[in-house]
Amino acid sequence: MPVLVKICGITTVDDAVAAARLGADFIGLNFYPGSPRCISEGQARLIVQALPSDVTPVGLFVNETWARIHEITARLKIDTIQIHGDQVEPCPLHDRRWIPAIPVRDKSDFDALAESLLRTYILPSFGKSVCRPIAILMDAHVPGAFGGTGRTAPWELIASYRFRMVMLAGGLTPDNVAEAVRIVHPWAVDVAGGVESAPGKKDHDKMRRFIENARAV
What we know:
By secondary structure, this protein is α/β, with parallel strands linked by helices. Helix content is 34%, strand content 21%. It has a single domain (4-215), classed as Aldolase class I (TIM Barrel, Alpha-Beta Barrel), CATH 3.20.20.70.
């Protein structure tokens, strides 16, 4: 099955429609005020309304309360959320699909993360009380940053753990995404800055090449 593609940090209807036309499976809408790609609810509503039914909008939140996440996504009719933060807690919103974002730096960090993932999200004994994620987004570890840094994640390390539902992020571009897919074999790839002409402004040719190269492996 070809890798799925998420184009994150979409800020305009034009870029969203272009990403969908080019074959993106997910569109990321950033609600983190500290990001240059942060958008208002009004902008997000126009984008969601313009998307075809086979493209999934994903709301991205950082250190946000679950109550506010529920309010915003309910108003916008977004049922998939991506969660970044200093400490990502299990999602209590059982009517939402969710993707926790995990920064990966080295093996010692990764061992601790793997244990946490297993204990918190994966073990069957937690199945009734914890909303299991549809994927784990693995990104580069940059202190004080929550994605969008352009730094690549340690692909070989991530590949060595063989998690099934990895959404790979961090420094991906049209020029390196094929190599990343060959090494990691992720379920999906996630890109923001790697397909931009400026923060929040997508380059449509870069999006096209990124999607084509990701799926050519």
